[in-house]
Amino acid sequence: MLNKAEDFNVNAKPTLAQRALRVEWLGQTAASLFWITSVFVYGISSTGDWLQLAAASAWLVANIATLVSAEAD
User: Fold this and answer.
1) CB within 8 Å of 39: residues ≥ 6 apart
2) Are residues 40 and 57 in contact, defined by beta-carbon separation less than 8 angstroms?
3) pLDDT at 70 over 80
């Protein structure tokens, strides 16, 4: 039954899997992975390509860190 306080806890923290399946997290992570993939598909031939790869990788790491750090809270 959902009318018991212990059955329906509105203050419950979402699990790691629940946070990872949110549209905003999935979208950000997919975008960073597509960006990384595009760097390899088009090739790394200049300093700008390396910077693009670094930026996309930093974005991916930040997404993962956000997901993991929320678990620690």
Assistant:
1) 49, 52, 53, 56
2) no
3) no
Mean pLDDT (the chain, rounded) = 86
Angle, to 10 degrees, between the axis of helix 23-42 and the axis of helix 47-72? Answer: 160
Which two three-digit tokens encode residue 61? 């790491």
| Secondary-structure percent of the chain, ordered helix, strand, coil, rounded to 5 | 70, 0, 30
Nearest Cα to Cα of residue 27 among 39, 35, 16, 15:
35
Whose tokens are 């993991």? That residue is 68
For residue 4, the number of C-alpha atoms closer than 13 Å in the C-beta half-sphere is 3
Q: What is the pLDDT of residue 45?
A: 95
More confident residue, 43 or 8: 43
Q: Which long-range contacts (CB under 8 A, 24 or more apart) does 8-14 make?
A: 13/73
